[in-house]
Amino acid sequence: MSENYRKIIHIDMDAFYASVEQLDNPEFIGKPLAVGGSELRGVVAAASYEARKFGVRSALSSIQAKKLCPDLIFVPPRFDRYKEISKQIRKIFFEYTDLVEPLSLDEAYLDVTENKKGNPSATLIAQEIRKRIFDEVGLTASAGISANKFVAKIASDFNKPNGQKTVNPDDIEGFLEKLDVKKFYGVGKVTAEKMYQLGIFSGFDLRQKSKEYLEQNFGNSGLHYYEISRGIHNSEVKPNRKVKSVGAERTFNENLSSEIYLEERILNIANELEKRLKSSKISGKTITLKLKYSDFTLQTRSKTLPYFVSDKTIIADVANDLLYQERLRNSVRLLGISVHNLNNEEKPHLKLPQKSISIQLKFEF
């Protein structure tokens, strides 16, 4: 490992949506809770830890979740409330560093190599941030601390909920070699299965493979896998991380088989999408219609305009054109609209310092 290290913290809120609901509704505390869906329809967006013990997780159908946990309580999502809480948490982050890269409402990277508190220990900073989130917001968070984003993200899962793990620079390779490759951030289910078939089960197995072998079997991703198995990940924390798309979708209580009924839903979704685009002060050229049929197959249809749009009327008109582009394959259970090709190109700005500190044996994590 190089002697020049960053100090990166990955903060991940614990069961964020469900925890907010339990915070606002004390009667839900200690009970299995699912955000999103209902007993008869829909998909779970988030599950409390009490529900996870039964195997309930995000993206699981509500019907299956109810079978796994008969006492499961369903509540509708309140994204405005989650955003409000997220802003409170990010305000705490910025008291320590300006190098904050949000990944979603409930997680972010922080580079505290140089920080506003002058604290040389990233471990102690993470402890302090987690305590402040609990004291000031009322929620628990977990953290991973290491010399790069990749290892910090993996580490934040180790002592969940309400814990943290530090992986010092000299311990990174030993930490990674013991992990199942499916635990590697960015290695999805399909890739993990392919690695298993090739006899690659752990980080240690992955590190035994040459760069050429990995490129031959995994194409352009081969170099990435070669480097991360050695703890090499040089991506900086990017405080101005660009949004690549904005979308909204709805799961229906009953499957819809007529385009006429779907037109009404398109207008409602376009209205919500306009609010999200305008609140972010962005617009886009490419509009995508997403259809999930009753047999759970997915279909997307897209159209790119010669100009940027954020107006709900235009979005709905284009979505309707896409709806009638071809006949429906089946009845529809979910409809979504997203806007891509956004106008949020980075503007010239004063670049924040992104320095590393050269410290050897006395480097504090």
TrEMBL record:
The record marks Y17 as: Substrate discrimination. Belongs to the DNA polymerase type-Y family. The active site is at E107. Pfam families: IMS (PF00817), IMS_C (PF11799), IMS_HHH (PF11798). GO terms for molecular function: DNA-directed DNA polymerase activity. Mg(2+) binds at D12, D106. It comes from Flavobacterium ardleyense. Poorly processive, error-prone DNA polymerase involved in untargeted mutagenesis. Copies undamaged DNA at stalled replication forks, which arise in vivo from mismatched or misaligned primer ends. These misaligned primers can be extended by PolIV. Exhibits no 3'-5' exonuclease (proofreading) activity. May be involved in translesional synthesis, in conjunction with the beta clamp from PolIII. Its EC number is 2.7.7.7. Keywords: Cytoplasm, DNA damage, DNA repair, DNA replication, DNA-binding, DNA-directed DNA polymerase, Magnesium, Metal-binding, Mutator protein, Nucleotidyltransferase, Transferase. PANTHER family: DNA POLYMERASE KAPPA, DNA REPAIR POLYMERASE UMUC / TRANSFERASE FAMILY MEMBER. This is DNA polymerase IV. Its cofactor is Mg(2+). InterPro entries: DNA/RNA_pol_sf, DNA_pol_Y-fam_lit_finger_sf, DNA_pol_Y-fam_little_finger, DNA_polymerase-Y, DNApol_IV, PolY_HhH_motif, Rev_trsase/Diguanyl_cyclase, UmuC. Binds 2 magnesium ions per subunit. The keyword Ubl conjugation does not apply. Monomer. It is found in: Cytoplasm. Gene3D superfamilies: 3.30.70.270, 3.40.1170.60, 5' to 3' exonuclease, C-terminal subdomain, DNA polymerase, Y-family, little finger domain. The lineage of its organism: Bacteria, Pseudomonadati, Bacteroidota, Flavobacteriia, Flavobacteriales. PROSITE patterns: UMUC (PS50173). Its main location: cytoplasm. It catalyses: DNA(n) + a 2'-deoxyribonucleoside 5'-triphosphate = DNA(n+1) + diphosphate. Residues 8-188 form the UmuC domain.
